[in-house]
Specification:
The chain has helices at residues 13-16, 24-36, 46-51, 68-88, 91-97, 102-111, 129-140, 144-156, 159-165, 168-179, 300-311, 314-336, 348-377, 384-409, 411-414, 417-422, 430-437, 447-470, 476-496, 514-541, 549-578, 582-609, 615-629; strands at 184-187, 203-206, 212-223, 230-237, 249-256, 262-267, 278-289, 293-294, 338-339, 342-343. With 630 residues, it is of the alpha+beta class. The chain folds into four domains: 13-47 and 448-452 and 460-623, no CATH class; 68-179, Orthogonal Bundle (Butyryl-Coa Dehydrogenase, subunit A, domain 1); 184-308, Butyryl-CoA Dehydrogenase, subunit A, domain 2; 312-445, Butyryl-CoA Dehydrogenase, subunit A, domain 3 (Up-down Bundle), CATH 1.20.140.10. The strands form three sheets. It has a four-stranded mixed β-sheet with strand order 1-4-5-8. Strand 9 (338-339) and strand 10 (342-343) form a beta hairpin. The protein starts with 12 loop residues before the first helix and ends with a helix. The structure holds flavin-adenine dinucleotide. Flavin-adenine dinucleotide (FAD) binds next to strand 1, strand 3 and helix 18.
């Protein structure tokens, strides 16, 4: 509409957020995170539009489909990978022995599994993000250790940052090596640096002639570090001339493993992913030439966060594979096991779990496929919210799916696959799935950090408008002008959150099955409620809203439910368009409408919880526990 006030332009973080009342640690973390945010302008992403009460269905529908050519290329690789996994790998043995056999490294290397997305001109397979996600789905249902090996290598290791940010020389030098099977890794975490990179202590000091840097420090939990030939290392470089020491910035370096001073001091072992080649890595005066910097000095966090935006899709994709396998095992068992006079799958409590696993698998797949297609359309697409939604929702539901499958299998769920086989039963590895998948909600952005990350992006349009008004660090004139701009925008926006008639529906020319259309309407109504609720919370809590993590978490989770509903509708419609069997069409519609109703009920419950909850009491109890501990 022409009378629509202009969307606020992104400002410098200091204008938007008042950091004057924060502790120095908090301020450092906040300013670093703000500086690394992608503040590019452009169309608001679909995920972001959900939080503003106007899901932009034109970005979702028609649901983006893979081209025939792309699909064919993917099918060929997937068939090779699947056959190899079946014939040459034994996930139970890998788990039991805590090692991946050398011949498996070789086999995967020969078929190109280490260079799935690396362009063909650098000896990779050059497959699309969608095909990469499909490969992760296949791996995720087979072996967590192999998934982690290949994912850490190419989702966060050397290939991904070089594909996006590398110079031609860097690409020529490292990508062919990585594509042929030289393992790579990503080293950010330190003993004191988990979710908060501002505390990083690894340093990179320029040599006297300025042509190189000396890296010193210790990195923790570096997946693939034990086997890596090259790795991305994050280190703090000196502040710009004249700036205080505290303004050291993070820089990303590519480091060859055989550089003197690089050591693996310990191989870490975990409750699951027993064959992860994960290590503590020490760097002592490691001399790295300036040409090995990725993107530029001081831009390492941008490299890490951008890499992770796409890298984050691998875990939910793997959860789709896991979900399919769980559904397979759970359905088989529920249809054979008879207790209390009938198959356990016919007892309502178990039936609901089965349906839930099916719905969650389908929804995660829709989220991953939609977000992957955005990357395929535009490598630089803003997928921050979509990828984070998929990671957050997919890994949380992934864990729940494994848990429900274990419950359905009863005592056999808890028994190891080897033990089941030894006494003559089918070796069903739910116990291994559970151990291997628990880490998914912790690494590559924990659930709590995903909540904060998405909440920050969700609030951004409001912060751009209201932030300067409340920022005591800004001059009065600036604040007054911001107040006027803000009043104009909200006078236009707020009434529309109560009057659905003003918001976009299904785009012209797109036909959606009536049952799915109903779900889109439901999603749109929920999106209005979410936008209103978020706005009311901003007024209620003011600048203290960022401390109300439980409330913000519920808004984010409600947004994820809406994202799940809408992407599932899109994906289901796409499947209906090619499915001719009436029975199959009905099954697709039944599953989608069930999943959407379930998601809507969950979103309503979450939104109710933003105003009616026991959060303050809980916070008080925790504070007392912490005080007693000191
Ligand atoms: C098996 C495994 C593989 C890994 N692979 C790699 C790798 O290849 N490269 C690499 O660099 N790292 C790797 N990591 C590290 C992993 O990414 C971190 O474990 C993760 O970032 C969390 O850090 P942390 O464990 O130090 O937890 P912390 O940051 O100490 O957090 C502990 C808890 O507090 C929560 N929390 C932290 N900050 C906040 C906040 N502001 N608000 C609310 N809650 C908060 C967290 O969500 C978490 O629940 C790996 C870890 C494991 C276990």
């Amino acid at each position: 509409m022409s009378d629509r006030p202009r969307s606020p332009a992104p400002d410098a973080p200091s204008q938007v957020l008042d950091t004057s009342k924060m502790s120095s640690g908090e301020r450092a973390a906040m300013e670093l995170a703000e500086a690394a945010r992608d503040k590019s302008k452009g169309l608001r992403s679909f995920g972001a539009s959900i939080f503003m009460g106007s899901p932009d269905f034109a970005q979702l529908l028609p649901f983006p489909s893979q081209s025939e050519e792309d699909k064919k290329e993917g099918d060929t690789f997937l068939a090779t990978l699947e056959a190899y996994l079946k014939e040459h790998t034994d996930p139970d043995a890998i788990d039991r022995e805590g090692e991946i056999p050398d011949e498996v490294f070789r086999g995967l290397g020969e078929m190109g599994a280490f260079g799935i997305k690396i362009p063909k001109e650098y000896s990779g397979l050059g497959l699309s993000q969608t095909n990469y996600s499909r490969a992760a789905m296949l791996l995720g249902g087979h072996c967590g250790n192999l998934t982690a090996l290949l994912s850490a290598h190419q989702s966060i290791g050397v290939p991904q940052p070089l594909i996006v940010f590398g110079t031609e020389e860097q690409k020529q030098r490292w990508l062919p090596r990585c594509a042929r099977g030289e393992v790579s890794a990503f080293a950010l975490t330190e003993p004191d640096v988990g979710s908060d990179p501002a505390r990083m202590s690894t340093t990179a000091t320029p040599t006297e002639d300025g042509t190189a840097f000396l890296i010193n420090g210790e990195k923790l939990w570096c997946t693939n570090g034990v086997k890596a030939g090259c790795l991305v290392v994050m280190a703090k470089t000196p502040p710009p001339p004249g700036a205080p020491e505290s303004h050291r910035a993070i820089t990303a370096f590519i480091v060859d493993r055989d550089t003197p001073g690089v050591e693996v001091t310990h191989r870490c072992r975990f409750m699951g992913l027993k064959a992860l080649y994960n290590g503590v890595m020490r760097f002592t005066n490691v001399r790295v030439p300036r040409e090995n910097i990725v993107l530029g000095e001081g831009r390492g966090l941008k490299v890490a966060l951008t890499t992770l935006n796409t890298g984050r899709l691998t875990l939910p994709a793997a959860c789709v594979g896991l979900g399919r396998k769980c559904l397979d095992h759970a359905t088989k068992w529920a249809s054979r096991r008879v207790q209390w006079g009938q198959e356990i799958g016919k007892h309502d409590a178990i039936a609901q779990k089965l349906a839930g696993i099916a719905a969650d698998t389908a929804t995660t797949e829709a989220m991953v496929r939609f977000t992957s297609s955005l990357v395929d359309r535009n490598k630089k697409a803003d997928i921050r919210i979509e990828a984070a939604f998929a990671k957050l929702w997919g890994t949380e539901r992934g864990w729940a799916m494994v848990d429900d499958t274990m419950q359905i299998r009863g005592g056999r769920g808890f028994e190891t696959s080897d033990s089941l086989k030894a006494r003559g039963e089918e070796g069903v590895p739910i116990e291994r799935f559970m151990r291997d998948s628990r880490i998914n909600t912790i690494f590559e952005g924990s659930t709590e950090i995903m909540h904060l990350f998405i909440a920050r992006e969700a609030l951004d349009p409001h912060l751009q408008l209201g932030g300067p008004v409340l920022n005591s660090q800004l001059p009065g004139g600036v604040r007054f002008k911001a107040a006027l701009k803000s009043a104009l925008f909200y006078a236009w926006w707020y009434p529309r959150q109560w009057l659905p008639i003003f918001t976009s529906g299904v785009p012209d020319g797109v036909t959606v099955h009536p049952r799915l259309k109903r779900e889109l309407r439901r999603a749109r109504r929920l999106s209005h409620r979410l936008a209103r609720g978020l706005f009311h919370a901003m007024i209620r809590f003011g600048p203290k809203l960022d401390k109300k993590q439980a409330v913000l978490g519920r808004f984010v989770d409600a947004g994820a439910e809406i994202f799940g509903m809408t992407t599932l509708v899109g994906h289901t419609q796409q499947q209906l368009d090619i499915e001719s069997d009436d029975g199959e069409r009905k099954a697709l519609l039944d599953l989608a409408t069930y999943a959407c109703r379930r998601a809507a009920l969950k979103a309503e419950e979450l939104l109710r919880g933003t105003t009616r909850n026991a959060d303050s009491d809980g916070y008080g109890v925790a504070r007392k526990l912490l005080a007693d501990e000191k």
